[in-house]
Request: fold
Amino acid sequence: MAEGKKLVIVESPTKMRSIQGYLGDGYEVLSSVGHIRDLADKKDIPAADKQAYGKYSIDVDNGFDPYYVVSDRKTKTVAELKRALKSADELLLATDEDREGEAIAWHLLETLKPRVPVKRMVFHEITKDAIQAAIGNTRELDLALVDAQETRRILDRLYGWDVSPVLWYKVKTGLSAGRVQSAATRMIVERERERMAFVNAEYWDVDASASSGTAFRVRLVRVDGGQLARGTDFDDSGKLKKAVVVLSEKDATSLAHAVDAAGAGTVTKVEAKPGTRSPYAPFTTSTLQQEAGRKLSMSAKQAMSVAQRLYEKGFITYMRTDSVALSTQAVQAARSQAVALYGDNAVPLKPRVYKSKSKNAQEAHEAIRPSGDNFRKPSSVSGELDREELRVYDLIWKRTVASQMADAKYETTTVTIGVDTSAELSTGTAKNVEFTASGTVYTFKGFLEAYEEGKDEKRGDTDADSNQSLPAVAVGDELAMSDAEAKGHKTTPKPRFTEASLVKALEEHGIGRPSTFASIIGTVIDRGYATKRGQALVPTWMAFSVVRLLEEHFAELIDYDFTAALEDDLDAIARGEQKRVEWLKSFYFGSDAHVGLRQVVDNLGEIDARALNSTRITDTATLRFGKYGPYLEVIDPAKPDERGRIVNVPEDLAPDELTAEKAQELIDAPVAGDRVLGENPENGRVIVVKDGRYGPYVQENLPEEAPVVDEKTGEVVDAPKKKKTAKKDAPKPRTGSLFRSMSVDTVDLETALKLLSLPRVVGTDPESGDEITAQNGRYGPYLKKGTDSRSLESEQQIFDVTLDEALAIYAQPKYGAGSRRAASALAEFEADPVSGKAIRVRDGRFGPYVTDGETNVTIPRGQKPEDITFEIAVQMLADKRAKGPAPKRGAKKAPAKKPAAKKAPAKKAATKKTATKTDAEKAAARSAAAKKAAATRAANKAKA
Reply:
């Protein structure tokens, strides 16, 4: 870099390329590619510091001091930044202006240790004017924001690493808990519980056609002055909440016939009400995620990914914001565009001003909008954006322009028609009935010319009057009545959450931050706590077990108000109103008003895992969640002490669909197993297909022992008792699991015999003399030669692969660029933030897995390798590390070494003093710790 240049550091390569074009030759823009430091992995902590930092990489006893290290993957990046900094005369830290961006800037400052002036450069859009304005309007680093981010990082580490292991031991290994993730899961489960407890109610009404020359539909609303029941009149137990008329099917049918017979009705009331609708505020992160879900069917994660690209390319302003405000220039741009497109009346006399309800200090101070002082129309940028980017940009552009447009004006007319049915109905039944119809006409569309917000599904939508155009009628007019039809309805439970409605609920409760919603929902789905049915989020039975455990043993941590209060406290830290260390002490160790996390974990007591994973469905059937998923255990009332019968529960059956009736249907269903396929021609044994607890399989039944016949009498007698045989030595029938492509209902004898013959001998390797076999495993079909195994691409290859083909497979590298399945089975991501090494998705002997070269994590069944994103991979690796290695035998001797370790507290006193020193001294201490970690890694490499 030329002498005297200014070095600008951003966190994104795309952002780097965009900004470089707006700055002159006097600047060089480089990227840190996200965070360069994070909490250390256990292996990177020197032995002398392990007692203090070893469990969490945080010294909880000395000011919650975190132990940071530069990841191995970022070593080269840091070196490049340091080289560039040597010849620079000024450093500009231009990371995003939120907590995360401020923290990245602070870590850069701590690691690079610049000897030149340092300035914090912030901007909300990547345009030439915005970047040049930011250069001239820099500020100091906001350490309060850094403290807030560090507190959140420590909080999440303590919460996750203390609570998650409880889930592993009592529910299922590999699960995770988190302050926002667990609250979101609870919301989804609670909604399903409401649906399970819901009792529907039936009610009837009558629709008819009214005509004064122009026909329109009317609905029955009153019978003899009494209001007719609607769905909203019933509670969730199916009982009425107020006195209304409930028609039976018979009553409604009689009324319909009577209305047709009467043939006419009289207009008794015409009511016209004017109204206005105001435009919606510009997008925040939350509302963008919601609308992208409703209108574009995008997940929250997908919407944020596309918005990130649009921001970095300079098309929109910063996409992580709680603000609905627009700059003066943006307001003028929106108004000008509205006038140009829809005329002078499209905007009000005064610009609209929107105020944010959020008091948090971490986000940018402007809503999401098109960048620049003159908004580019979607049609003018279509050649520069891909399909998804264009769809999101179009959404943002329309919403922004509409936000400055005039109110829409409308008039809603309601017509009431009375029909006398006394002549048609028998004495004692209804005589006077009233129908209504409503129609809305917009007299001025205003902002609706540009944009109308989508809607989430709500209960009672079927009861809403359909909007229609009504003819001009007056009180006293007689209308023809015909085509009356009785219609039955049933009340419905609350709809399940979609990603959009869950984001809205989380925001309303004040849980989490909009910028984290996408990753949180992604984690909930990836962990198997919920699945998507269309747009709806359906909780799994595993989620029920997890939420039950958290409610019973970590009630405060999963409480919505408590979780929201944590967010408020983090905001207070970001504003400088709360001290980080004091707050963490209260959360972890407890206070007068709060039981600390440590006390809760240390005093859990006994947890009955069986009861935790059980949900009673009927008196004899209990849903249990086990290692291999949910199943019904059915107890025989006559033998209550015996182990119950196991009944599989279909994977696609939602919890609220497992009613008592459905459970009985599953219990009574004929078992597909034990269907006789025929006899093995080689030995005459019967081959059957069974549907077992762990999946369908075929079995060759062992022959029954021939009866013992008394030679003298010819009668069958009891066989003499044999000596008991050990269970492991008892003869077992041959079995073979069905392939995933096979069905219990269609498998035939020929296929069954092939399955029973596995593993199939393919041939012998001419070089080594080892036998090569083809077989099927838990993770799919594979070849085996000694201890070396290779995956096959299809189950059919088990039967078809030849020796030459098998040898060709073995001739190729097992992993890497030259492997047979590299193109389809490998994916590579950026460095893992903990190990610093590249993350890859590989296809191994036991199926696809994620690895950073040090930690391997098998991808769960039902999840495809191509679905693994960088964020998911990082979380999977972190969870695996948190679990730790399996305990080794003989490790019980370790406690004998404890006395020697007691010397550590003497060092803590000194450490504690430094924790209360100035920020500069604390930073120096952390830097020294980082150097120790680097030295440790270097020493380890030298030994290797």
Notes: The longest strand covers residues 264-277.
